[in-house]
Specification:
By secondary structure, this protein is of the alpha/beta class. A hairpin with a 5-residue loop joins strand 5 and strand 6.
């Protein structure tokens, strides 16, 4: 199998790639992660994913590089990682009983040929109505503090979610079915 390089330090993305049996290296280069203005959210995350993958591809002679970026969007506002306890509580109060979008863009680059494919996935997440006590208990667990939108669906945050429309793995950090389809275009077949 071709050498795979994940251009992301995200432990969740790394775990997702391991889950589907991929062996890969992790190489992260600093890039400006400011969302580009004037683009739709899906275009913007694809642009950031491309930047991340390109910076790594520029230093590699061969290998398939995967870059990714995810945003959480609530009422047309991007929700980043919480600044602190009260910020996480306020975010979760807003999301309670409502829905939001999780949009992930990813980019795959073949360092040897320069071939580039970008794609994105959008999942709508519905939160159940949460009590203040539930929100404060969840934030006190510490889990939401390093996560956009102040929750992690793959952990304790699963109990906040009523349902989703779309790809679950996208909410965790990578839309695995779509990524596997794109990797096949690069000669990497996850099922072989």
């Amino acid at each position: 199998m071709k050498k795979l390089i994940l251009a992301s330090a995200s432990p969740r993305r790394q775990e997702l790639l391991r889950q589907i049996g991929l062996c890969f290296e992790v190489t992260v280069k600093p890039v400006d992660e400011t969302l580009p203005k004037g683009l739709s959210y899906d275009e913007a995350v694809c642009r950031l994913a491309y930047r991340k993958a390109r910076e790594v591809a520029l230093e590699e002679k061969e290998g398939i590089i995967i870059g990714a970026d995810t945003v959480v969007v609530y009422r047309d506002k991007v929700l980043g990682k919480p600044a602190g306890f009260s910020d996480a509580v306020n975010t979760l109060r807003n999301l309670s009983g409502d829905n939001h979008l999780v949009i992930t863009g990813f980019c795959v680059i073949d360092a040897a040929t320069g071939k580039v494919v970008t794609a994105s996935e959008t999942t709508r997440v519905f939160f159940r109505r949460l009590t203040d006590a539930e929100i404060e208990a969840y934030v006190s667990s510490g889990e939401p503090m390093d996560k956009a939108g102040s929750y992690g669906i793959q952990g304790l945050g699963a109990v906040l979610v009523d349902k989703i429309e779309g790809c679950y793995f996208n909410v965790v950090g990578l839309p695995l079915a779509k990524l596997a389809s794109v990797l096949k275009e690069f000669g990497v077949d996850v099922l072989e």
